[in-house]
Amino acid sequence: MSESGGDAMNLYDIIKYEGNNDVFVWKHPCEDFNLGTQLIVHESQEALFYMNGHALDLFGPGKHVLETENIPLLRKVSNLPTDGKTPYHCEIYYINKTDQMAIRWGTDSKVQYIDPTYKFPLSIGANGEMSLAVHDSRNLVVQLVGTELLLTREKMVSYFRSFLMTKVKTYLAQVMREKALNIFEIDEQMELFSEEIHKKLVPDFLDYGIDLKKFLITTIVRPDGEPQYEKFKELHFRQYADIAEAQLQQKVGIIQQQTESQRVVIEAEGIAKKRAVEGYTYQQERGFDVAEKVAENEGCGNFSNVGIGFGLMTGIGNSVGSAVGDIMNSTMPVVTGKMSENNPMRFCDNCGAEIIVGASFCVNCGKALEKSDQCRNCGFVFTKSENFCPKCGTRRILNEK
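and the corresponding structure tokens:
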């Protein structure tokens, strides 16, 4: 955008640019101007003054009057005529300094490399976005623009496409090897991956006067469907599945043990409350169990086994002994009663001496003994030298030789 003074030489009085923001460099159509022409540069711009093919002065934001005092490099080249008109070929390039964001990029082919974890070859691709800004206006115009009238963002990307593909593919393989990035876990390292490649690309762009503000990898293109890749993918995720399953089983086992422990505690507390209500202790309960076993013992019919029972009783502590003693006191009459019924004691009818079991004669007086000494009326077995039956009162008939 320019304003002309309207003279025959078509010289411009005001030079400025207010075009699209996606333009990096724009060449003003003015190639001759009057001394005193105003050059307007916006805040996000720079203007580069060319003369006879040489890049001279660079103007920053503001309003500039083109005079020899404001163009020191021009003053060194030659002395301008005093009529206020320059006979030299002059050019003005406007450079856009804003950040050009959301510029898409992507590899045109896959990168071949060896996975650092599983050591198998694979090929990947990548794509994402980047942001560019002009860092050195003079360097950019000299190296990329040349005699072009316009450098748009699209044309800038096309210039850097081959350069970018070569660099990016090389750096992708290098960073994955240096940082030991696993292809199956690279998504969680995407930010680190982007930062490392960005660092490597910055110097390459600065060589052309471009500042690579941001470089983001948004997608990694994996070789899905390739047999070798799928094989290692299954192995990789299987190991985590197995570990997770083992950890889950361990947690379940711990929960079951805790549940069983709580059950035992609750059961013990219930039994303890039951004993407290019924008025006995654990030691006494154990004594009851031992006494019950002794009473149920089939060998309790003889004194030797009863002695063993007594030994068991005395082996229990003092607190148990008192409880067991009470039980034995009530149990022994029953036991001895059974023994008396099985082997009743007999006495001699002549002298009253005790008769040995199975004897035919009294060992004291020698009197012959009857095999049965019973009441003739009711059948009561006499155990002593009674004269009358204690059951029915019938007179007892004593045997004589």
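(Above: one complete record from the training split.) The first strand starts at residue 2 and ends at 4.
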